[in-house]
Batch of 2 targets.
Target 1
Amino acid sequence: MKRSASAAWSGDLKNGKGQISTETGVLHDAPYGFRARFEDGPGTNPEELLGAAHAGCYTMALAAGLGQAGFTADHIDTRAVVTLDKEGDGFAITTVELTCRARVPKIDTAAFDQIAQATKLGCPVSKVLKAKISLDAALDN
C-alpha cells in the first residue's frame, strides 16, 4: 500500500505561502506557512499534520489491539502534541505526547495499560518517528 501527499511553496521562508494536498482530496491546497508553523497564523503546519496522523494511527491500532484481546471500545479519543524545538542552527521534532482516553467495557486497568503501551510501540507512525514518544492512556469510567 502506498499513499501520497504533496506540498507546494512560493516565496521566501517568512513571507512565502504553501499549499498541502493529499491523494484522497481530504486536503486540497490547504494553506500552510511560516506564521502557521512558528507563530499563531492561519493555516496548518507539518507538526499539526504529523500529530493528526499519529493520533489517528494510534487510535486505530489500539482498537485493533483491544479487538485481538477480545475487547471492543465504546469510544477512544487520542490527542497528539508534537513539539518542535530549536536545535543548533535548525529545528527538530523532539517529543510527541499522546494522551488517550478510552471507554472499554469489561477490561481492567492492567490489561488496558498493557495493550495501550504495546500499541504505542507497534503503531506504524510510532515506528517511523525517532522522537521520544510519551503516552498517557487511561480508561474513562
Note: The first strand starts at residue 5 and ends at 10.
Target 2
Amino acid sequence: MASLWRYVLAGLGLAALLAGILTAVYLTAPQAPQRAGFEIARSKKTTNGLFVASFEPEQGVIRQGELQSWLLILRTGAGTPVEGAAITISGGMPQHRHGLPTSPQATDYLGDGCYRIDGVKFTMSGLWQLHFAISAAAGSDTVVFNVLL
C-alpha cells in the first residue's frame, strides 16, 4: 500500500511540474499583435486629405505566403475617381524592422479610380504596413495601410 502512495505522489508531482513548465512557456512566448492599438481600416483619407484611398485583396481573402494582387481605389474628397495616378509602394513589418519580401507595383488601371497592385506577399503572421505615395492632377499625397495577419 505504501508503494502505491509513492506512485500517486510522484504522479501528482510530475503533473505539477509539467503544469509549471507549460505556464512558463505560455507567459514568455512572443504574442501576435492585438487588433487594439493598430488601426486596420481598409478605407481612409490620405495624409494631407487630397484623396480617399481604399485597399483590399483582389480575391477578397488575405493569403499568407502567396503572391497576390490587391486593389487600390482612389477618389477625391468629393468622390470623383482619380485617374492617371502615379503610385509607388513600400512597406514591411515595423515590429520586426524589415521590409517587404517583394516589390509590389501598380500594374493596371482598371477604371473608376481602381488600380491593381501586383506582387504583394506576406511571409508571416503579424502586423504589416504598406506605404503608398500617390501623385495625380490634384497633387501628391501618401497613405499607410496596416494589414494584420
Note: Confidence is low (pLDDT under 50) at residues 31-36.
